[in-house]
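#struct-help
A.M.: can someone run this one for me? Single chain, 974 residues.
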Amino acid sequence: MSIRDLNQYEIIKDEDLQDVKCHGYLLKHKKSGAKLVLMEADDDNKVFSVGFRTPPEDSTGLPHILEHSVLCGSDHFPVKDPFVELVKGSLNTFLNAMTYPDKTMYPVASCNDKDFQNLMHVYMDAVFYPNIYKHEEIFRQEGWSYKLDSEDADLEYNGVVYNEMKGAFSSPEGVLDRVVLNELFPDTAYANESGGDPDVIPNLSYEQFLAFHKKYYHPSNSYIYLYGDMDMEEKLVWLDQEYLSKFDVAEIDSRIAYQEPFAKMKEVEMPYSVTSEEPLEDNTFLSYNKVIGTSLDKELYVAFEILDYALLSAPGAPLKKALLEAGIGKDILGSYDNGIYQPIFSVVAKNANPEQKEEFVTLIEKLLTDMTEHGIDRKALEAGINYHEFQYREADYGRYPKGLMYGLQIMDSWLYDENEPFIHIQALDTFAFLKKQMNTGYFENLIREYLLDNEHGVIVTLKPERGRTARMDKELHDKLQAYKAGLSKEEIAELVERTKALEIYQSEPSDAEALATIPVLKREDISREIAPIYNEEMKLAGIPMVFHEIDTNGIGYIDIMFDMSEVPEELLPYAGILQGVLGIIDTENYEYGELFNEINVHTGGIGTSLELYTDVTKAKEKEFRATFEIKAKALYDKLPIAFNMMQEILVRSKLDDEKRLKEIIAMTASRLLMRFQSSGHTTAALRAMSYASPSAKLKDMTSGIEYYQNVARIEKAFDTEKDELITNLIKLTRMLFRADNMMISYTAERVGLEGMKQQISAFAEGLYLQEKESGKHCELHCEKKNEGFKTASKVQYVARCGNFIDQGAEYTGALQVLKVIMGYEYLWQNIRVKGGAYGCMSNFNRIGEGYFVSYRDPNLERTMEIYEGVADYLRTFTVSDFDMNKYIIGTISNLDQPMTPALKGDRSMNLYMNHVTEDMIKEERAQVLEATQEDIRGLAGIVEAMMKAEQICVIGSEDKIEEAKDMFDTVTGF
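D.P.: on it. Structure tokens below:
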């Protein structure tokens, strides 16, 4: 049987999608009106997605709350959290749900046929038959509810989405993005916040919540996507029989309205919150934004990605360079958002001042006018096109399945024209068209039409306001207490009762019969084989190399590694700065903008990084190796250019360029602070581990909080620090970039070795010749600090760490199972479900380091108490064989993620450098597959050993940290 024989569906398109090596179909289900795209591909990492157009009607966050809530049980799968049960017991390679400004997506992926079918079944049931109609508690848990623990307690709001968005609205970048979107499209759904504004979320009623689901979660408003190597006919028959045939076509107006252009560009000023200690000067965001046609124009869709590169995003791009040189902001960010109906081109100056707004706008428009008159740098356009085309052809999305990324990109056109799903994934013709336009004035005309002569735009000034978070928190507190004061005794008692009832609902496990409905693989379905390791030691031109022979489609991935063991402790922060400087500073032969373009014209990119490799055979001695690495990827015939450019960066960079160094230092400080806001959990965990772990200490010194403190110190007193900075950077290059201090990791096919010896020889000969200082080895001094870092955020990132090997415990593969149990059972239930945090994580590694950390957490002391309870929970851990099986499957899923060729090479090299053998991995896998209830109970001692270190770090709100200051040795801000 073929797709054409299925009478339930109408074939609208049948296309050979050669650019992405797929065959595509666009179908419509006749009875229900569901729209489907199928992409047949030789890829066993299969992807399914069901999505809906969900234009928000207000800023209560309805689409977002619904996205969370439909995954809390359904007709066929009446457990309280099938999403969590799937994570625990599935071999998925992707499992999530996402809310966008105009759509909600439910994608899953798996390489296992049986597992893939299970995932499809649970997700289809979740979206069409959710338990939200039976249990109001789901809405109150995931959205918002009143929380009143006793009649005398303060009344509060709680809810997972409510707390998540409190965190999102604490980030100035997040606030800016929302203001821009809302202001540019005042007459459309984009004027509302689909994720939810915390001030508005509590206006949402349960009845509105259900009505939104009834209206939009219907097959006639759905977009169903299947990708990979599977029996498509079988899937279509199943979709029809189990779900789609149960519905009739319905008229649903979910159209995304077109915003008519403005007659005059808008200007908006908004506040954002900073702590009482943060400066007001040099802390304003200036943002210039224009609407660029629609996302249905396939040439424009890519052309503005090229212009974003050429004008703004590349180091040395003219807009970025001019604004920095004019002193307007310390960091210039650009973006081109083409994932909505009317894309937005943005220029953002961060760490600027309000009085610079006119100069900011004038300079941008003057530069753009100059370019329309004198032309855009051709090399920049060529580099931009090659950079995007290389990425498109390589299709390396890291850990994300390729089919998932295609499915998301398809929505950039399909959502707005149901007959055009493929225009953006078939992109080679578009790249060819744009190459021909480089010398025709095409790009200059785009600047004129869409940037200069286009009034559909907004200029946003985002100004810092001290104490704003505390003031708003007090206003909310007073409002809630005033509301409580107006209630009768009976109404207060009812609120207390409802709070308790929700906690009881959350605490009660799903019954065994309901849990049995979630399809789970058996341990016998799991292979005991480990993923291959591709390491072949060799020497080329006298340089040690580890070769990873993998099919890379003609791309060579080269990683040159320089040993950092001689670098003294006082120079390590400067190694972090050197890594950030190289590649974006002038060299002897190129200005830094030209350098970046030259690299991207010929290669897939060159980057630097600092890496840490811990010796797992010497965990007690805490031995590790740090390397300074420069990495390149290029087609084999372009590798000579890649080597030349890497050499140019390492030994010919002008590290005495004071002006450029000052710009980079300011930009680095700004970006680190931004990262601490968005990834506070990883920052806090690293900082806490650095109190006792030399390898974590080095990482913190070169990329974490200590690194930021040093960079901020240099920025503040640059004129007095600059000479020492330059001296140390130059000293490091001589110390590191020597032929006798390097080794190479190379991922390619065997044919990619041809000519490599000559390339390596020429590269090594151009390095420094400084004598190696024999016997010198860097020693790091750790110190327990237990810090609380105050921010303007309304949520916390709470970390507790320690090393269990230090206390005599040993690593076992069962700890990987514990990670799943913690993340989706004990921590999940107590920190997310009951506590209202957005996330909670744990980790335990082979060198004994373990941590617990929460993400966007409204609590602090309560979360620390939950960490204290882990060991007791484990001592009495009781689990059925069925549930234990799920935890093991979920653990294997984490261990067995599919890898791109580049990731296979990276994994192999990491194992080599960490001295992890094949036998060790096999032993760990066996310990996972054979784990029992008793093994998990036995981990109580390991967790206790970890907790004995009492290492804590919290990044969070000023008030919460002040309230808990006795917990910390030091309380400070950034």
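A.M.: thanks! The longest strand covers residues 624-635.
D.P.: also worth noting: The mean pLDDT is 94.
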